[in-house]
Amino acid sequence: MAEKKLVISDFDMTLTRFAYQGKRVPTTHSCLFIFAVLLQMKELLNRYYPIEIDANLSPEEKLPYMVEWWTKVHELLIQQRIRKDMLAHAVRESSAMLREGYRVFFDCLAEQRVPLLIFSAGVGDVLEEVIRQNDVFHPNVHIISNYMDFDHVEDRKESYMNSFDIVLVKDETMDVPNIGYQSEKQS
Ligand SMILES: Nc1ccn([C@@H]2O[C@H](COP(=O)(O)O)[C@@H](O)[C@H]2O)c(=O)n1
């Protein structure tokens, strides 16, 4: 019977580089620093990352701090009202970088149809964008991560406003069509 192969990896600082030319390479969370919250997110990274990598603490001791970190960062990100279409730009502007030799790694697994499962505590939408922009998002790549939940009305509001005379947001009434109908009747 043919042997089934599978590759499992995490993402930040495993498939991406830790540093390049003496500078830290951003994690998927850090790619979002572009959105105004830069300073607060950096402060949180400086506070919590040393706890994440502290060899003197057990996973149980670290866990509440990690939850606190993600909760605070995610609250900051929600406040920024980031739209899905902004993420490609954020990744392009960032210095996110896969490890040297990444293409051989991704292409070989794809050619041999070996599934690559990427488990990440980072931001799935950003992670996808990083591998997409590096042209290695092959069909054998599967991502298990945290995804952002976008408000699609906000996402599309601008394009709707450019296309229509009236755009109703959170209006559960028939007031606008009724006003239109009334004025039609009177004219
Ligand atoms: N707010 C946060 C939370 C986590 N990080 C870093 O992301 C890394 C995710 O790593 P994976 O190996 O699971 O892809 C994690 O190690 C944290 O250092 C962050 O930058 N900001």
Features:
binds the ligand Nc1ccn([C@@H]2O[C@H](COP(=O)(O)O)[C@@H](O)[C@H]2O)c(=O)n1; 5 strands; three-stranded parallel beta sheet; magnesium ion binding; mainly alpha; 187 residues; metal-binding; two-stranded antiparallel ribbon
Strand order of the largest sheet: 1-4-5
What is the first-to-last residue Cα distance? Answer: 81 Å
Structural class: mainly alpha
The biggest sheet amounts to:
3 strands, parallel
Inertia-based shape: extended
Write down the Rg. 22 Å
Order of helices and strands: EEEHHHHEHEHH
| Strand segment count | 5
| Mean pLDDT across every amino acid position | 90
Strand content: 5-15%
**Unreliable residue runs:** none
Ligands (ions, cofactors included): ligand L45E5XJ5
> Helix count?
7
What percent of the residues sit in helical stretches (DSSP H or I)? 40-55%
Structure in words:
This protein has a domain at 154-186. It is 48% helix and 11% strand. The protein is built from seven helices and five strands, in the order E-E-E-H-H-H-H-E-H-E-H-H. It has helices spanning 38-52, 59-79, 85-93, 102-111, 124-133, 152-163, 175-186, and strands at 7-9, 19-20, 23-24, 116-123, 141-146. The chain has a three-stranded parallel beta sheet with strand order 1-4-5. Strands 2-3 form a two-stranded antiparallel ribbon. Strand 2 (19-20) and strand 3 (23-24) form a beta hairpin. The relative contact order is 0.15. The ligand Nc1ccn([C@@H]2O[C@H](COP(=O)(O)O)[C@@H](O)[C@H]2O)c(=O)n1 binds at residues 10-12, 14, 27, 29-30, 45, 49, 52, 69-70, 73, 120-122. It is found in: Cytoplasm. Keywords: Cytoplasm, Hydrolase, Magnesium, Metal-binding, Nucleotide metabolism, Nucleotide-binding.
